Amino acid sequence: MTAPALPTLRDVIKRHGLGARRSLGQHFLLDGNLTDRIVRAAGPLEGINVIEIGPGPGGLTRSLLASPAQRVYAIEKDRRCQAAMAELATAHADRLHIISDDALETDLPSLVPEPRKIVANLPYNVGTPLLLRWLRQIDAYESLTLMFQSEVADRLVAVPRTKPYGRLSIITQWLCEITAAFNVSKDAFTPPPKVASTVVNLIPRAAPLAPADWSSLETVTAAAFGQRRKMLRASLKSLNLDLAAAGVEGTARAEELGVAAFCALARLHGARQG
User: Fold this and answer.
1) Per-residue model confidence as pLDDT tens digits over 14-56
2) Whole-angstrom Cα distance, residue 175 to residue 235?
3) Taking a C-beta distance cutoff of 8 angstroms, is the pair 109, 136 a contact?
4) In a shared domain, residues 150 and 119
5) Residues 51, 182: one domain?
6) Max alpha carbon distance in the chain (Å)?
7) Helix 167-175 vs helix 259-272: crossing angle, to nearest 10
8) Does residue 3 lie in a domain region?
9) Is 250:223 a contact under the CB 8 Å cutoff?
């Protein structure tokens, strides 16, 4: 879709006084080639209601509006950015909806009709809490295409016996298939963050990788990785689990177990909890 003529993003930043605020984790991406690439990474968008978090001056928003997406729902808590986005909404009639709220407190499925995808350059300071919130309702989304700090993305895609592998890896991979799409240099942002970023795709599984209860899986992984250098018979001692019944060696360490093994431990824990 052809976008109407708009001021440059740098003009928008200047007119609305959109100096990036560290307290909001803001790092603006102004390169249209990169924002277009993020949109392409999200796959087909025709007929999809796309949710964007923290649009800032609207760089990624413009690329989303240039796609075949049905509508774009931008969640923005910064009042300065809301004013800039209102101008963009005027230029795009009914396709852009601005939701003035904190994404951490917003029930997205209740506000955005199906089918839904989230496509966002996430504020660095709330990226992981947002993901964990969405994972609890993962069936509500067709996919999530998200930009994180590269160290967070590494944790999402990590495999057993690697340093980044941990609780976030297990919870996310339990519910989604995850791929790293591409990296983005820190110099691409205004202002530049201290680290590089990575765009990842998360596709909800038709069913979780193995049966488990969220609460029990969180409890077991927290105990195991809270003392990740210890053998599981020591780190999980307080949970009083029969490791052998789950097919787990007591001498193993947390980083050696795959997602299915942690799910087996979670089922034991759930059974003990009644």
Assistant:
1) 776 766 666 555 678 889 999 999 999 999 999 999 999 988 8
2) 25
3) no
4) yes
5) yes
6) 66
7) 90
8) no
9) no
Cβ–Cβ under 8 Å, residues 79 and 57: no
Determine the structural domain holding residue 243 and report its residue range: 214-272
Q: Which residues contact 124 (CB under 8 A, 6 or more apart)?
A: 25, 27, 148, 149, 193
Task: Note down pLDDT in tens along the chain; length 274 residues.
Answer: 455 578 777 877 777 676 666 655 567 888 999 999 999 999 999 999 999 998 888 899 999 999 999 999 999 888 887 888 888 888 887 899 999 999 999 999 999 999 999 999 998 889 999 999 999 999 999 999 999 999 999 999 999 999 999 999 999 999 999 999 999 999 998 778 889 999 999 999 999 999 999 999 999 999 999 999 999 999 999 999 999 999 999 999 999 999 999 999 999 999 988 7
Asked whether residue 192 falls in the same domain as residue 102, the answer is yes
Give the list of residues 6+ apart from residue 25 with CB closer than 8 angstroms, or none.
54, 122, 123, 124, 125, 126, 127
Tokens representing 143 are 């996919």
- Check whether residue 58 and residue 168 sit in a common domain: yes
